[in-house]
Amino acid sequence: MSFLSLYLSETTIHGLRYLVEARHPLVRLLWFLCITACFGASVTIIYFNVRNWENSPTVVTTVKYSLVKVRSTPNHN
After folding, report:
1. Domain assignment of residue 65, yes or no
2. How confident is the model over 38-49, as pLDDT tens digits?
């Protein structure tokens, strides 16, 4: 067993063990596509968030609905 196969079969990263342990090639292909799609989506989201932050490096959060009533805001003098 190669080092990569051993790593993939023993890792706790979800789905990677099915790339080497799945008996049917279609199952391996589906897991590979799912892992690749999720990794690609993660990289894309990170890229756009970093690009957005570089263009406007402020963080603004608005709360539309809240379970807690805000009665006053602190005064910073």
Report:
1. no
2. 999 999 999 998
Rg of the chain, C-alpha, whole Å: 22
Number of domains making up the chain = 1
In a domain, 64, yes or no: no
- Measured in Å, how far apart are the chain's first and last C-alpha atoms? 67
DSSP letters spanning 32-54: HHHHHHHHHHHHHHHHHHHHHHH
User: Is residue 63 domain-resident?
Assistant: no
- In degrees rounded to 5, what are phi and psi of residue 66? -140, 145
**Do the beta carbons of residue 19 and residue 32 sit within 8 Å?**
yes
Taking the C-alpha atoms of residue 64 and residue 77, their distance in angstroms, rounded to an integer, is: 27
Other beta carbons less than 10 A from residue 31's beta carbon? 19
Q: What are phi and psi of 14, to 5 degrees?
A: -60, 130
Q: Is 0.85 topped by the overall pTM? A: no
